[in-house]
Design a protein that fits this description.
Number of domains: 3
Structural class: alpha+beta
Radius of gyration: 22 Å
Strand content: 25-35%
Oligomer: single chain
């Protein structure tokens, strides 16, 4: 649990983003079964107290909850209307000064959110007490049991978080495609301002996280472990509206999938993996499912110094696709097509799709 220690009367063992299973005795007990505190041991030794608290929706003071809800719905409507300028004006200074990423995300998701209304799924109020930014602020929300998370708990981890009052609002969009829109909010004066924005589809290829989980278990029983692992990862991603929050459901998927984690495929956050193809070695950086229509396809991204020559890059993509299929024939039964994307250091890429039935 890094340097943080859980303060709870039960001595529960939260699984913080599944990075540790260490059990440490509580330093003391703090009131409220729904409010868990984390205190940095290093901060205690240095005489500087650092604490993080989380309140779930039912425990947030009514006036504060109403203000967070109103701000969240208002900002959702701005996103649905494509009002990036309005959202920028209502962002904290640091976000407003570097708004390009959020503006791009709003544009990229516009066709899925236009005309939709947002319904609040979950609210959390987060309070960070410190004199300096907290390198790894861990918020334990809800009630935890002896084995860690429960059906109504969540763990939220934010990096380099300045002291202050924050909120996480997760909303469901009622558009043509199931979507979630989430905001990290921070108090500036009497207002809740945007500190982060996340929008993501809740389905891939018309299937939700539970479908991918069921399919992963089927593939596991058939011995198609690499395909199963990819489906487990997709299930976990779809069930996580934001990348910095874990729940009991995502923790269980993590536990179930870890014995299947391959050593010859790239993993999220892990190093690239070398793959021989056509007499060359390619550095594969990521491998993940995508939905195109009703199909589930597989994307393989690899490093390329230059993708400006479309003909040459297309040929390389085909070589990579064929090599991937030859090395992992089980993908023939689990994906409709393979998409290779050659990616420059700048992030510019060039993609090629081949239907599995057309790959020799």
């Amino acid at each position: 649990m890094s340097v943080g220690m859980l303060l709870s009367c039960s001595g529960s063992r939260p699984k913080l983003m599944r990075l540790s299973r260490n059990v440490r005795p509580p330093l003391s007990c703090v009131a409220s079964s729904r409010v868990l505190w984390i205190v940095s041991a290093a901060a205690i030794l240095s005489g500087t107290l650092t604490a993080q608290t989380c309140l779930t929706a039912e425990d947030i003071e009514p006036r504060t909850r109403a203000a967070i809800e109103a701000a969240s719905v208002r900002y959702f409507n701005m996103v649905a209307q494509g009002d990036a300028a309005g959202l920028r004006q209502n962002s904290i200074p640091g976000v407003a000064a570097d708004f390009g990423g959020i503006e791009t995300a709003i544009k990229d998701n516009q066709h899925n959110l236009t005309g939709s209304k947002g319904t609040i799924r979950a609210l959390f109020e987060l309070q960070a007490t410190s004199k300096e930014p907290i390198p790894r602020a861990e918020f334990l929300c809800g009630v935890f049991g002896k084995s860690g998370q429960t059906a109504n708990s969540a763990v939220i981890v934010l990096s380099n978080l300045p002291p202050g009052d924050y909120a996480l609002a997760i909303l469901d969009a009622d558009g043509k495609t199931p979507y979630s829109v989430s905001f990290v909010l921070q108090t500036v004066g009497a207002d809740w301002k945007v500190g982060g924005f996340y929008a993501k589809a809740s389905q891939v290829g018309g299937h939700d996280g539970q479908w991918f989980l069921t399919r992963a278990r089927e593939l596991k029983t058939k011995g198609k472990t690499r395909s199963a692992w990819l489906y487990y990862m997709e299930a976990r991603d779809l069930l996580s509206p934001v990348p910095f929050m874990s729940t009991q459901a995502t923790d269980k998927i993590y536990d179930e999938s870890q014995p299947l984690q391959p050593t010859d495929l790239p993993t999220p956050g892990g190093p690239a993996v070398d793959m021989a193809a056509g007499g060359k070695t390619y550095r594969v950086t990521s491998l993940f499912p995508v939905g195109i229509g009703d199909d589930i396809d597989l994307v393989v991204k690899y490093q390329s110094p230059d993708v400006s020559n479309a003909t040459q890059t297309y040929q390389q993509n085909v070589v990579v696709i064929k090599a991937l299929m030859a090395k992992y024939p089980e993908f023939r039964d689990t994906f409709a097509a393979i998409i290779a994307r050659a990616t420059e250091p700048s992030g510019k890429d060039y993609g090629t799709l081949l239907a599995v039935k057309d790959i020799p």
